[in-house]
Amino acid sequence: MRDSNFLKENNGRLMWHPMTSPQDSIENPPKIIVGSSGVRITDIDGHTVVDGVGGLWNVNLGYSCQPVKDAIADQLSRLPYYSTFRGASNDVAIELSYELGTFFAEDGILRSFFTSGGSDSVETSLRLARQYHKLRGEPGRVKFLSLKKGYHGTHFGGASVNGNANFRTAYEPLMPGCFHIPAPYTYRNPFNEDDPQKLAQLCVSALEDEIAFQGANTIAAMIMEPILGAGGVIPPHESFAPMVRDICDRNGILLITDEVITAYGRTGAWSGARLWGIKPDMMATAKAITNGYFPFGAVMLGEKMVEVFEGNPAAKIGHGYTYSGHPVGAAAALACLAETKRLNVIENSAARGDQMFAGCKALQEKYEIIGDVRGGHGLMTAIEMVSDRGSKKPIDAAIAATVQETAYEAGAMIRISGPNIILSPALVLTESDTAIILSALDAGFAATRKH
Questions:
Q1: CATH number at residue 359
Q2: Which of 315, 343, 371 is the last residue of a domain?
Q3: SS3 385
Q4: What is the DSSP letter of 234?
Q5: Same domain for 116 and 145
Q6: E strands within 52-202?
Q7: What is the CA radius of gyration of the chain?
Q8: Residue 35 — very low, low, confident or very high, per pLDDT cuts 50/70/90?
Q9: 287: closest CA among 326, 256, 329, 327?
Q10: What is the side-by-side strand order in the sheet with 33-37?
Q11: CA–CA gap between residue 51 and residue 429 (Å, rounded)
Q12: Which long-range CB contacts under 8 A does 301-304 form with residues at least 24 apart?
């Protein structure tokens, strides 16, 4: 490994980073993370902080989960790779499909299709949705509905159903036939409605209007996050998802829940679908399935999909990835799933999530810069910063950067996304770890008073 001077000199210069401009990486070199332990990360200068980001929503079990590391090492020594394309399989992928079916049985899940990550899982879901309707003799059902502010990865299909212009504009025109309805976002919505239940009904009415306008027989699926994550942690009213499920059923539209973030305990429930008491036709999962230790994902398939595809010789799936069902990824996922259940992380996720949410609400009372705090469902919390509470004008990017940098120096890595601070730490976070994150945020907000 090159020495630290070499790494610092070339940091931001030779590698293009996701979700930022190459020039920004040069002018504001990213933190160089070189070590980790538990829920903490260490940078190249030896500064250790609590990771309030959880890698990127995915390191649910922290950085020292030895059973997953051991499973990876063992599998690498036994079978480091083989394809699962037609005519071949591997033992660990078969076992994983069984375990996932058991884990998600309450969500109505019967089968798995393995991918390399979240964007792959979304892309697979969209493709299979169109194929499902063709196999049923409705080839005109090709359109997709989704929520504004929703995030569904970066592939062409996922970007097309994304509801945030930041992930769309530079790559347009995107896939045709994708339409977006207002999200149940109480702080900002076109209805100026701040009652969550009333807003849920208004958004559902907008969904029904869009279906009527497009024609139900032209729509393949509705895809949505049970709680919108990257868009700013936007939890809907508990009535919203069941109403969407009912509308999809009445109109012959598949419902895909994008659970890349919400599956495996993040919300304080084992899945976002289960949190709201619905059964999706497909679930796109990834991230925490391997605790971030190996790129892997799974599309979980419900009864409707199984009935149409299985026993039908015309239902050839002309889609897949070189690393679908990768044996090392499958081994990591098996170990991760076992450890996730053993630790029963949903209990700690709920408890620490309540602590985080309450702490952020207390900070809102203290600092005018905090316009809104969202959370209350496991370890998913967002703080939306404003320059003026009355007008809700978003904060200047330089001030947001001050909060982030000061918080880092005070002991916590946090993530800034537009005007939002998004907190998604490991589900094994302790009470004292949570207090450190809140204290670091306090320091960050206090530093903005100098502006």
A1: 3.90.1150.10
A2: 343
A3: strand
A4: B
A5: yes
A6: 109-115, 143-147, 178-181
A7: 22
A8: very high
A9: 329
A10: 33-37, 40-43, 48-51, 412-413
A11: 9
A12: 301/109, 301/110, 301/111, 301/112, 301/113, 301/128, 302/107, 302/108, 302/109, 302/110, 303/108, 303/110, 304/132, 304/254
Q: Are 358 and 329 in the same domain?
A: no
In a domain, 315, yes or no: yes
Q: What pLDDT sits at residue 311?
A: 87
Please give the average per-residue pLDDT across 281-302, as a whole number: 98
* pLDDT, the chain, mean: 97
From residue 22, give the alpha-carbon distance in Å to each of 4, 25, 26, 151, 320. Answer: 21, 5, 7, 22, 31
Show the beta-strand stretches assigned E in 304-378.
370-374
Band of the pLDDT at 334, cuts 50, 70, 90? very high
Q: Same domain, yes or no, for 354 and 306? A: no
Neighbours of 316 (CB within 10 A): 10
How many separate domains does the chain show? 2
Q: What share of the chain is helix, strand, coil (3-state, %, to 5)?
A: 45, 15, 40
Residue 303, pLDDT > 90, answer yes
Residue carrying structure tokens 């030895």: 66
Spatial contact of 145 and 211, defined as CB atoms under 8 Å apart: yes
Sign of CA dihedral 106, 291, 415, 120: negative
Q: Indicate the pLDDT class of residue 450, thresholds 50, 70 and 90.
A: confident
183-192 per-residue burial string, b: 16 or more CB within 10 A, e: under 16: bbbbebbeee
Q: What is the pLDDT of residue 2?
A: 82
